[in-house]
Amino acid sequence: MILSIALTQFVFLSLGILSVNVLLKAAGYAANVAETFPAFSVWMATQSLWLFTLPLGWVTFAGLCLHIGKEPFSEMAARVTGVALAVAIFAAYFTAAFLLL
Questions:
Q1: pLDDT at 33
Q2: DSSP assignment of the chain, as one string?
Q3: In Å, how far from its chain's centre is CA 48?
Q4: Could you tell me which of 69, 59, 60, 49 has the C-alpha nearest to residue 4?
């Protein structure tokens, strides 16, 4: 279950990065005209590689939860935070892409 949540986070992040960058390039984005585009979308596109640390950090947290196994670091806590992070990634990139339409 932990592996599937981690893969879902990475897939949402990768597809979000791809979609926001494609929409920005299609709209004629250039560094000198960045202020004409939504700031959130531009930030998500320019800082996208740093956002890969979120799922990596969660995988580390989930591994620690599996190793410790006691409250509040149980497997259920890892699942809940992982699903919440996946939903947050999806919502952030959906919002960034929607602002560009």
A1: 81
A2: -HHHHHHHHHHHHHHHHHHHHHHHHHTT--GGGGGGS-HHHHHHHHTTTGGGHHHHHHHHHHHHHHHH-STTS-HHHHHHHHHHHHHHHHHHHHHHHHHH-
A3: 8
A4: 59
pLDDT of residue 55: 95
Rounded CA-CA distance 40/21 in Å is 12
CA 15/CA 35 separation, integer angstroms: 24
Rg (alpha carbons) of the chain, rounded to whole number: 16
* pLDDT value at residue 70: 87
Residue segments in the chain with a per-residue pLDDT below the cut of 70: none
Alpha-carbon gap, residue 92 to 20, rounded angstroms? 11
Distance, in Å, from the CA atom of 29 to the CA atom of 13, rounded to the nearest integer, reads: 21
Per-residue CA distances from 78 to 65, 67, 73, 91, 99 (Å): 6, 11, 7, 20, 31
